[in-house]
Specification:
With 130 residues, the protein is α+β, with helices and mostly antiparallel strands. The protein has a domain of 89 residues: hypothetical protein PF0899 fold, CATH 3.30.2320. The protein is 16% helix and 40% strand. It has two helices and eight strands; from the N terminus they run αβαβββββββ. Strand 3 and strand 4 form a beta hairpin. The chain is flat. The model has no long low-confidence stretch (mean pLDDT 86).
Length: 130
C-alpha cells in the first residue's frame, strides 16, 4: 500500500499540472493477480487490486492490466501527460489465396504506434514486481 501511495506522491510532487483525475496504473495480468491477492494492511480484508483484473482500481485510482505491458512492471502516472501517435494508420491486408479451397479469406491488421511523454516526471515505473 505504501508503494502505491508513493507512486501518486511522486507524480503529483514532480508535476504541478498533474491531477489524480487522469492518474492510473498499467501492468500485466500476472502482476494484477499478485496484487489482487495481497492485503492492503496486515489483517485487512481489502486487497491492493480491487475489481476485475483487466480493469480495476489500486489505491482509489484506475488500474488496467494488459499483456502489452512489460513483464513484472507497474507504470503509474498522469496519463493526460502522454500522446499516442499512429504511423501511418491502420493497414489491412487480405490473403484470399492460402485457404482458397476452404473458402477462407485471411485478414491481417497492423498498426504502428508511439507513445510520447510530455512530462516524464508525470510517470513512475517499478520493475521486478514480485
Amino acid at each position: 500500500m505504501a508503494k502505491c501511495l508513493e507512486f501518486q506522491a511522486d507524480v503529483l510532487g514532480s508535476n504541478a499540472l498533474a491531477t489524480l483525475q487522469a492518474f492510473g496504473y498499467l501492468t500485466t495480468p500476472t502482476v494484477a493477480k499478485l496484487m489482487a491477492g495481497r492485503q492492503t494492511f496486515s489483517g485487512a480484508s481489502t486487497t491492493l487490486w480491487s475489481g476485475q483484473l483487466a480493469d480495476g482500481t489500486v489505491c482509489g485510482a484506475r488500474a488496467i492490466a494488459t499483456n502489452s505491458a512489460p513483464a513484472s512492471t507497474i507504470v503509474a502516472g498522469d496519463w493526460s501527460q502522454g500522446i499516442i501517435f499512429t504511423w501511418p494508420g491502420l493497414l489491412l491486408a487480405a490473403d484470399p489465396y492460402n485457404d482458397f479451397g476452404t473458402g477462407v479469406v485471411s485478414l491481417r491488421a497492423m498498426l504502428s504506434v508511439d507513445f510520447v511523454m510530455l512530462r516524464p516526471g508525470a510517470f513512475s515505473v517499478a520493475s521486478s514486481v514480485s
